Amino acid sequence: xxxxxxxxxxxxxxxxxxxxxxxxxxxxxxxxxxxxxxxxxxxxxxxxxxxxxxxxxxxxxxxxxxxxxxxxxxxxxxxxxxxxxxxxxxxxxxxxxxxxxxxxxxxxxxxxxxxxxxxxxxxxxxxxxxxxxxxxxxxxxxxxxxxxxxxxxxxxxxxxxxxxxxxxxxxxxxxxxxxxxxxxxxxxxxxxxxxxxxxxxxxxxxxxxxxxxxxxxxxxxxxxxxxxxxxxxxxxxxxxxxxxxxxxxxxxxxxxxxxxxxxxxxxxxxxxxxxxxxxxxxxxxxxxxxxxxxxxxxxxxxxxxxxxxxxxxxxxxxxxxxxxxxxxxxxxxxxxxxxxxxxxxxxxxxxxxxxxxxxxxxxxxxxxxxxxxxxxxxxxxxxxxxxxxxxxxxxxxxxxxxxxxxxxxxxxxxxxxxxxxxxxxxxxxxxxxxxxxxxxxxxxxxxxxxxxxxxxxxxxxxxxxxxxxxxxxxxxxxxxxxxxxxxxxxxxxxxxxxxxxxxxxxxxxxxxxx
Length: 514
What we know:
The chain is globular, with a radius of gyration of 23 Å. The chain folds into two domains: 1-20 and 33-183 and 499-514, Rossmann fold, CATH 3.40.50; 303-478, Rossmann fold, CATH 3.40.50.2000. The strands form four sheets. It has a nine-stranded mixed beta sheet, with helices on both faces. A four-stranded parallel beta sheet has the order 13-14-15-16, with helices on both faces. Strands 3-17 form a two-stranded antiparallel sheet. By secondary structure, the chain is of the alpha/beta class. The chain has helices at 50-65, 76-93, 129-137, 140-148, 166-174, 186-197, 238-249, 264-274, 291-296, 305-313, 345-357, 371-376, 389-398, 411-421, 447-458, 462-481, 487-498; strands at residues 2-7, 12-18, 38-39, 41-45, 69-74, 99-104, 157-161, 178-182, 211-212, 222-223, 254-256, 278-280, 320-324, 380-385, 402-404, 425-427, 501-502. It has 17 helices and 17 strands. Mean pLDDT is 81; it is low at 1-37, 85-97, 287-292 and 506-514. Helices cover 38% and strands 14% of the residues. Helix 1 (50-65) packs across helix 2, helix 6 packs across helix 8 and helix 13 (389-398) packs across helix 16 (462-481).
């Protein structure tokens, strides 16, 4: 038994006796502040959307379990939300006595014309997203002052979300390297990069006209500007998109939330395109085994985990379809109710009626659900998803085929990854954004399309069996990659070693590039 501590600068988050996992990193391979006077301190600066924040916290924890010091920079709202996530994750993944520091910095919403509650991204008023990113950029100076003030090992690496280009300036001012953090797969990132690099949309006026993604050799994938506009490829965001590209190009490496065995050719392709090392370190969430840890990941859940388990335990294996569109997507009420004059209160009435109608056969969760626990249960046989990358990884880890229902951003490329690359999914068939539309359109996915896709992944036909066989093989690969000698294990130790500075070295000298 040992004690795990998660601390901020002035107080301890969590101290409890925990049982150590049986497998630990080899003592001679550990970085951090161990023998030999070496230390590595990774400072994570995530974009505070759940799809970016959760894998950032996961990766920080993984580095801590292998001897490095890790800090995560969040606003007070998200620090409060993530205490429970970090606490229970530590109970499963301890290896030694890791320390994760949480740096709480308030977001100056008023300075950029945002209401105070906009610290929660769910409460940012429409049309003010640019203001929010300006507010995030204002964190740079107070963060630099904090990191220079001492009280912790001096940073040896800034891990900046690729959406936050100012983290490159922060690292340069501190005199330390920076790696870009991508919370998405290599296939998506490489396709976006190649579409921009080769100017694939030149002469294409229609945002719905497909083009072939260049630079992928014999592999042929078609995308439209609506599906893959490039990162921040929206009107009015051109300067920000340029800054993002420059920051990625100047980075000292890339940390990517994926595993090499699933997409080796795309990881290699992105490494070659960028001329830098890509560390594939998939989120720790894939390998949680204990149900309480599974239930606690993310926000505090809106339903008791035991209630979920009891309901699932009463169902046959592979008989349940789980439906979730993540934390950002808000379906148009027209998707559920035909008469647009009946929106508002009638939508709530509809959900209440739905809950009553499916009682016993279905379980409606209002709010944040213990998704990883649900997906991991033997009764769950399929997943209808918006194709957020965290959800896709969790489906793969659970060995579940997916119905893909993309809404915006990287979700369309993640859908192609599931359907066309991995062969583990079936699309509902819509190919343009349903959320964050540049031009407002009324798009409704029909009952027939949804029913057809769900039956395709749940029935016992040969195609359905093949999809299930493929995704279960991927789940086996995912489990193997965390074993000693697997790519996840190797990349994690390699990342620590690459950004470890021996005691006495000048902390302002940049480490050699790869």
